[in-house]
Here is the input.
Amino acid sequence: MIQTADRLRKLPPYLFAEIDRKKREVRARGVDVIDLGIGDPDLPTPPHIVRALQAAAEKSEHHRYPSYEGMLAFREAVADWYRRRFGVTLDPETEVLTLIGSKEGTAHMPLAFVNPGEIVLVPDPGYPVYSAGTWFAGGECFFMPLRRHNGFLPDLGAIPADVARRAKLMYLNYPNNPTAAVASPAFFRDVVEFARRNDVIVCHDAMYSELRFDDYLPPSFLATPGAREVGVEFHSLSKTYSMTGWRLGFCVGNPDAVGGLGKIKTNVDSGAFQAIQEAGVAALTGPQDVPERYRTTYQERRDIVVQGLRTLGWEVDVPRATFFVWAPVPTGGDSRAFATRLLEEAGVVVTPGVGFGPSGEGFYRVALTLGADRIAEAMERLQKLAW
Ligand SMILES: *Cc1c(COP(=O)(O)O)cnc(C)c1O
Here is the structure.
């Protein structure tokens, strides 16, 4: 009998398994299911980036092992992009590390900095990789509830003093998955102050900073005074350039934090395919008209969802970024029962908030990763049900 290690048993049950099973059942009944559960862009990678990969793949120098920390050309492109977009100056040699997608980097951070029994501050609801990475390193999670009345920001003052003292890392993610909340520079200033006082390394997952709407521009944590002494920011090309399958991301910020993560990576992987990094340079430095058009596309879809839910008399906050809409369950309470009803009676998949952590209960998430016509049809189906 093969026995897994305790750390695998520590992972919570996969809460979406039930929805996945029901989705298959409903499909098997011949229902045309509209799946608004998928956090993966449906829009293709812009063609000039694909062409850059094609050309780079021909070069035999890229067929060998890449450098561990990433090609300097890619890291320079990242530093240039940070300067242009956020006014943040980074040393590409010591403050930028190439990742095989940002998920890999966020998951590996605790291995570099957390000793068994030390605490990691993790948002609830949140991207599950933060807690999994913590447990794999033998750390303990202290979950920071994200509440609507607080704009889905953690209440730093509510973290008990002894927990704060024992905490080694803090994960944050704004614009946020799943709540679509955004953070202000003032909140980031409080985070820097908290991190300084308690000697905590801040890991800010800024994945959705470019999926922004109207004239809102999400700030970088690293633009906060003092942030570079206490933390790093994670980013990738996955969502901005519709490149989830390519696996290319980066970690930037404090050189000791970046260096520690790099040391783990040197021992577990051998870097990102260089042809993909060349394509990444094309993405970051090339024309930005396609991502701009994609933003407009997501914004149109967002408006269809917001209007559709409001027509039903359901409460919803208008997201300023991300490709998610997060809203309170209109019938109150049980998000799984609500999601099941939408699936069974309307053939529409939404994600129950509790799947992202206990504080997500009472909410559901709609992903804007299908065409406007499908999203509009989903809204029409909801309007036909008796509520
Ligand atoms: C999609 C997503 C990621 C994963 O990014 P990759 O660069 O594709 O690994 C990380 N964090 C959040 C919050 C996400 O939603």
In short: The mean pLDDT is 96. Residues 57 and 275 are 5 Å apart (CA to CA).
